[in-house]
Amino acid sequence: MTRARHHWVLPASLLAALALSLLPVPQLLLALRPYWLGLVLAYWVIEDPDRVGLGFAFIVGLAGDLVSDGLLGEQALRLVVMAFILQRFRARLRFFPLSQQALAVGGLMLNDRIVTAAIHMVLREPPLPSLFWLSPLTGMALWPVIFLLLDALRLGSWRRR
User: Fold this and answer.
1) Threshold 0.85, pTM exceeds
2) Where are the transmembrane segments (predicted)?
3) 150: domain range?
């Protein structure tokens, strides 16, 4: 028995992640904004590695750079590093319970913040605020919801009654 593949879910989820990253957020909550593109890409690297790899992460990162006001190539580098780590540990991560996956994704989001800080340090940009490090906690908390939502859409289980 083969499952119906919903090919529209991948591009739609990435467009939704890009849109969420562009939504205005009050200054007070800005530090808690999760890295939507990283979370969605993490799901796809874990669940569909045949379609989503390092090249795909690079292209998605460039798209993220083009819609944001950041340095061209910064998100591309961040997402390639994230995809590389996920590919390396994918076999183990897939079989973790969702709570342990959330912890691993939180560590991955923390690594993303370290890469971002390193990029800013190399480019001699002003240091990032200390609240900048809270975002991985939000990503970790949202991972189970994002995973279950994307899994239901990808597998079509939202149609079952």
Assistant:
1) yes
2) 131-153
3) 9-155
